[in-house]
Structure formats: structure tokens, C-alpha cells
Design a protein that fits this description.
Increased loss of mitochondrial DNA protein 1; elongated; signal; 0% strand; 75% helix; transmembrane; Incr_loss_mito_DNA_1; mainly alpha; 206 residues; 10 helices
Length: 206
């Protein structure tokens, strides 16, 4: 198992979203002019978008959406028990019953609860990875150099065209890497849990 559990990573990600939302609301220049945004933008040859220099740039709205996203993640990760938590409770219950029964094996609800956390976050992580991967590819493939739009014309872009900037690309790239990390961590946890259940079942049959 990795150094950090999936639950710890998701909670840290929610904290990161809260901090990012505060900066977007109070001091958006700290994000738009950060070294990371500049570095990735220069490396991928993505031009600075003039839309983020306008007074009506929706930084406050972005901050609210990030806070909502963080709250949803915190609620789900807190209310849905992790696999290890279910197994730990099962071990306690089995020890109290003098080891006469395999609680997890005889309780379909416990089995379902043990798998629910992994299923939910695997689905969420996979969908978010695909979403941010698509956004990053969309921005990279739509660089002004590639689609032949001048700086003056880019100022009038609306809709999806407003996504084509360094800030959104940097955020999408970081989210894509994070959710890939979560997917790998969840896979390791599932493998560890499967091995633990198999060992417990073998011990029970002996």
C-alpha cells in the first residue's frame, strides 16, 4: 500500500480546493501569475488569455464551484466507510464472537459496504480523470499557433473558447495527475483487501 491512503489524498485535495477558491476570490493574480502557470504555459506554448485580464472574469464563481466540489468530496469520503474501516469492525466483531464465524463472509451487507467506497471513488476518479484529460488535450490542441487565431481575435472568444488559457490548462493538468494517483492508490487498496479477505477465509476454513 502507498504511503498515503486514498482517503487522506482526497481530504488533502479538498483542502487544496478550499485554498485555491480563497485565492481566486481574494487575490486571483497569485494564481494567474504563479510560477507553475507560467512554467507549464511556456513549456506547452500556450498563450496568455486576455479573458483573465478583464474585470468581469468569473473568479468568484470559480471559487464557489471549487468550494462546492470540495464539500461534496468531503461528505462522500467521510460518510462512506473505507474498506479497511469495515474490515476492522468485522475483525472486532469476529473476535468478540470467539472467531466462530467469518463476519464479512456471512454478511452480504458488510461485503457491499466494504466494496462501496472503492466503487464510488473509482467511478468518480475515472470520470474526473477523463474529463480533465479531455480539457487539457482540448486546450493544447487549440493553441493560437495551431488554430491560427490572432491575439485581437482571441479577445472576442466566447463559450469553450474562454477555456483556452494557461490557468485552466494548469488546473486541468494537475487534476488529471491527481485523479490518476487516486486510481492507482485505490487499485492497490483493493488488491491488499482481496489478499486480506482470502487469508481470513483460508484461516476460517482450517
Amino acid at each position: 500500500m502507498g504511503f498515503f491512503s486514498s482517503k487522506t489524498l482526497i481530504q488533502a485535495h479538498a483542502l487544496f480546493l478550499f485554498v485555491l477558491a480563497v485565492y481566486l476570490t481574494k487575490s486571483p493574480e497569485a494564481i494567474t501569475d504563479s510560477d507553475l502557470v507560467l512554467l507549464l504555459g511556456e513549456a506547452m506554448k500556450i498563450d496568455v488569455s486576455p479573458t483573465f485580464a478583464r474585470p468581469q472574469s468569473p473568479f468568484a464563481l470559480c471559487g464557489i464551484l471549487l468550494v462546492a466540489d470540495a464539500l461534496v468530496d468531503l461528505i462522500v469520503v467521510t460518510k462512506v466507510p473505507q474498506i479497511n474501516e469495515v474490515l476492522a469492525r468485522a475483525d472486532v466483531a469476529r473476535s468478540r464472537s470467539n472467531g466462530s464465524t467469518a463476519v464479512i463472509g456471512n454478511n452480504p451487507f458488510a461485503i457491499r459496504m466494504a466494496a462501496l467506497y472503492s466503487e464510488i471513488w473509482t467511478l468518480l476518479a475515472a470520470s474526473r480523470f477523463c474529463l480533465f484529460f479531455a480539457v487539457s488535450i482540448f486546450i493544447y490542441q487549440s493553441k493560437p499557433v495551431a488554430w491560427g487565431v490572432s491575439a485581437d481575435e482571441s479577445e472576442t472568444m466566447t463559450g469553450l473558447g474562454q477555456l483556452k488559457n494557461r490557468v485552466v490548462f494548469t488546473y486541468g493538468f494537475m487534476e488529471m495527475m491527481f485523479w490518476l494517483w487516486i486510481l492507482l492508490t485505490l487499485r492497490e487498496e483493493r488488491q491488499e483487501t482481496a489478499a486480506r479477505l482470502a487469508a481470513a477465509e483460508a484461516e476460517h476454513l482450517q
